[in-house]
Write a structure and sequence with these properties.
mainly alpha; 24 helices
């Protein structure tokens, strides 16, 4: 006897049959190809949508015809057929979506498939037509969300297929946030999304949770959701989820909430959030998660971190900087910027061990054409924020590394960066400190460098600065 689970899996993976070529006449197919708007073809495709999968080109055609002739949506049952026959059937997640969700969180978050993108575009276009269509669209969305809302509160209900309806409803609700000013976003967030984000087991219903976070993100960005410290805490708790998609979207959402709230230093204790963010960075697949690291940078930027929080951040960030050879440029950029900001804030209480670790990694980065930009950025932060007495004993080795790179792997970009760095050092700590520290490598090497490198590159650097001013 075949089990229910096997039958269900077959049904879940099965798709509607593709639209047969003979479902439309050759003349109709040519009209679609040529973009000739025909209400008869629109009606024919609408009726076929309950039996067949409508191709992307035909969906685009239906949208264009519908927008050309709004009266088509006034015909009895048309809106319902479009929503249920095309939009919901296309937007509802399938087994391929589940596989991608688990396999590649960046690709999953990057955007929808072409079919789903066109179906959502069709839905948005419908919503823009009239108040009547908007009301029908909102009703369809609420039915999807309500259909399974009560059952979803029951223990272990997430193994049921019903969650797909709610997920689809939240996806369409995101479209309404963008397209329908009459949509009551706040009530949906309070009544339906908050209970999901508050589930005790943060690893329950990961796909629905991710869709809810995307809905919240869009609502916050569009200014249609009230932000508060309570919301920040609620979303922050989801950073602990095992799913890469969930904790990445939660981090992205926190960035937006903090930006909108325009938090001032000391308004929020970010230590619990930081703990969760660094834990998430240790989860498989998220070791170089740019969303998490950007969230760390945002939290450091807007918050007055306690001494305990600073110790945690320095320890974790320096460990990543020293022990990982980052392959993700966006991740490394935010890592370096976070450290630079911490150096600026904690310059009065900077330990020798921290300085040794950071300078050691800086020296490695400036030795590489791939990482030298980040290395100079971090060196500049050290030189800018620490008094000369703290860095003096380390500068000889820094110059040795920089001059070795200049001799062994010279590039025009590196020469310019080195001259900029030395100019900055001169302004910050004075000519005497610069000359003495450089000449500690070799007597009179400073004069040789000025003659052979600094002077020849000054004009080029000035031209670069003028170009940067023009583009501002």
């Amino acid at each position: 006897m075949v089990s229910f689970s096997i039958v269900w899996k077959r049904n879940l993976n099965s798709q509607r049959v593709e639209l047969p070529r003979d479902a439309l006449t050759e003349q109709q197919l040519c009209q679609i190809k040529d973009g000739i708007k025909d209400a008869t073809i629109f009606r024919r495709l609408k009726d076929l949508s309950f039996k067949y999968t409508i191709p992307v080109s035909e969906m685009n055609y239906m949208r264009d015809v519908m927008m050309f002739d709004h009266s088509l949506l006034e015909e009895k049952g048309t809106v319902k057929k479009l929503i249920h026959g095309i939009v919901i059937e296309t937007v509802r997640v399938g087994s391929n979506d589940e596989d991608l969700f688990k396999r590649d969180f960046r690709e999953y978050m990057a955007g929808e498939s072409k079919r789903r993108e066109v179906a959502l575009s069709l839905f948005r276009s419908m919503v823009m037509v009239s108040q009547k269509v908007r009301a029908l669209s909102r009703s369809a969305v609420y039915k999807l969300i309500n259909k399974s809302a009560k059952k979803l509160r029951v223990k272990d209900c997430w193994s049921s297929w019903k969650w797909r309806d709610q997920d689809c409803g939240f996806r369409l609700a995101t479209c309404l946030v963008e397209s329908d000013d009459s949509f009551d976003v706040e009530s949906v967030l309070q009544e339906y999304t908050t209970p999901i984000l508050m589930l005790v087991d943060i690893n329950k219903a990961p796909m629905v949770r991710a869709t809810v976070l995307k809905l919240l993100l869009v609502a916050v960005r569009s200014g249609k959701a009230s932000v508060s410290l309570g919301l920040l805490s609620l979303v922050g708790s989801n950073i602990g989820a095992r799913s890469n998609v969930v904790h990445s979207l939660a981090a992205d959402c926190i960035i937006e909430i903090m930006f909108v709230m325009n938090l001032k230093a000391g308004e929020v204790d970010v230590l619990p959030l930081m703990v969760n963010l660094f834990k998430a960075l240790k989860l498989p697949g998220s070791e170089e998660n740019e969303y998490l690291m950007k969230c760390i940078f945002q939290a450091v930027s807007v918050s007055e971190i306690s001494p305990k929080g600073c110790d945690l951040c320095f320890r974790e960030l320096i460990h990543i900087l020293v022990c990982q050879r980052c392959q993700n440029p966006e991740f490394q950029k935010n890592l370096v910027q976070s450290l630079a900001l911490l150096i600026e804030r904690e310059s009065h209480d900077f330990t020798e061990n921290r300085l040794v670790d950071i300078l050691g990694r800086c020296e490695e980065m400036v030795s590489s054409p791939i990482d030298d930009e980040h290395g100079f950025f971090l060196l500049k932060s050290v030189v800018d924020n620490l008094v000369y007495e703290v860095i003096a004993s380390h500068m000889k080795h820094v110059w040795v590394v920089l001059f070795a790179r200049l001799v062994n792997n010279e590039t025009a970009q590196f020469q310019q960066s080195l001259v900029r760095f030395m100019s900055f050092f001169l302004v910050r700590h004075g000519i005497a400190s610069l000359v003495d520290s450089v000449n500690s490598v070799h007597p009179d090497i400073f004069n040789a460098f000025v003659r052979d490198c600094w002077v020849p590159h000054m004009k080029l650097i000035n031209e670069v600065n003028e170009d940067e001013k023009k583009t501002e």
